[in-house]
Design goal:
alpha+beta; 3-stranded antiparallel sheet; 7 helices; 12 strands; disordered C terminus; binds copper (II) ion
């Protein structure tokens, strides 16, 4: 696959280099949650733009009532998680992760580029708190979405806060504000290089980003206008891991091959597109758009947000008790 939004190839194929990093101890505020009313809903679209991704046809889905955080998990909250649990991400274990080349310093840029997508570079030491490698930091990005986290890392964080990843159906249902028929979280109006609703690419991909939205890479999780329900950045900024395995529902030979690969790589569905998407090249910031990446991949444009079956204030009580118990000397 040659796409702006995915660095093809599995992280697991690369050598595992153990690294030792200091722990950041900033306190991340828990995000707000919105109660989402379930019901009969749907996933995908009958008007697919990128058919190979399995956007269509629209599939009926029954969604239960659930709670969803208004924004993606920030670097600050992920730092809390790591400080409390000592969790080691998969990118740390593997010793490298995919970084969008424009975010790199010239020195690091000489690193190995990823196959057919030269704007993706495999950077040794790129991890969540040094998203572009050892010369970078998140100090000025604590309110940005955490990146360089795999699906497995996201699931571990979700368990820590007593939540889970949303299903693809839940994610779309919340992004549409229920059963509204709309292409984007803000409605049907197409963003342009001048009229900006979210953090995507402006200009000619991949050589020139006019930065009309103010961001080359990620933006703070509360950037741009929220939906009427209070959700931020479903479209653009970072791809968000969902709970679901990635499959293309089609009988075509191409779909069959893609599904075989997805099964082998344990691909999961990501939603929402990222700061790299542009209509001309990777039109994946629509609600129905999707991408499949292996559960152990980490990159500089993928993060996640948390869903709950019960209101997390109840969960929060359990969590702080659990942490107290853990820190009691024995
Ligand atoms: Cu894209």
């Amino acid at each position: 696959m040659s796409e702006c939004c995915s660095a093809a190839g599995r992280e697991g194929e690369h050598s595992r280099i153990g690294r030792d990093h200091p722990v950041i101890t900033s306190r991340g505020k828990p995000a707000e949650v919105v109660a989402v009313k379930g019901g009969e809903s749907f996933v995908g679209t009958n008007d697919p733009v990128i058919a190979a991704d399995g956007e269509g046809p629209a599939r009926r889905a029954i969604v239960g009532d659930f709670f969803l955080e208004t924004e993606a998990v920030t670097n600050a909250r992920f730092a809390d998680f790591v400080a409390a649990t000592g969790y080691v991400t998969e990118a740390e274990t593997f010793g490298c992760a995919a970084v969008f080349s424009h975010l790199l310093t010239q020195k690091t840029n000489a690193a190995q580029s990823v196959g057919a997508t030269p704007w993706w570079v495999r950077v040794p030491g790129a991890i969540w708190k040094m998203p572009e490698g050892p010369e970078s930091s998140i100090d000025d990005r604590l309110d940005h979405p955490v990146t360089q986290v795999s699906w497995n890392d996201a699931v571990a964080f979700a368990a820590w806060v007593g939540g889970r990843l949303p299903t693809e159906a839940e994610w779309e249902h919340a992004a549409r504000g229920g059963n509204r028929r709309r292409r984007y979280p803000w409605g049907d109006e197409e963003p342009t290089d001048e009229k900006i609703f979210c953090n995507i690419w402006q200009g000619h991909f991949p050589h020139c980003n006019s930065l009309a939205d103010g961001f080359l890479g990620t933006a703070p999780v509360r950037s741009f206008a929220p939906t009427e329900d209070g959700f931020y950045n479903f479209s653009g900024n970072v791809w968000e891991w969902s709970a679901d395995p990635f499959r293309v529902r089609s009988l075509s030979r191409q779909a069959k091959m893609r599904n075989q690969e997805a099964r082998k790589n344990v691909d999961k569905v990501l939603k929402g597109g990222s700061f790299l998407c542009h209509t001309s090249y990777c039109y994946r910031y629509r609600i129905a758009a999707r991408m499949g990446l292996s559960a152990d991949s980490a990159s500089s444009n993928a993060g996640f947000r948390i869903a709950y079956d019960n209101h997390p204030s109840d969960v929060g009580v359990q969590r702080s008790q659990a942490v107290e118990v853990m820190s009691t000397p024995v």
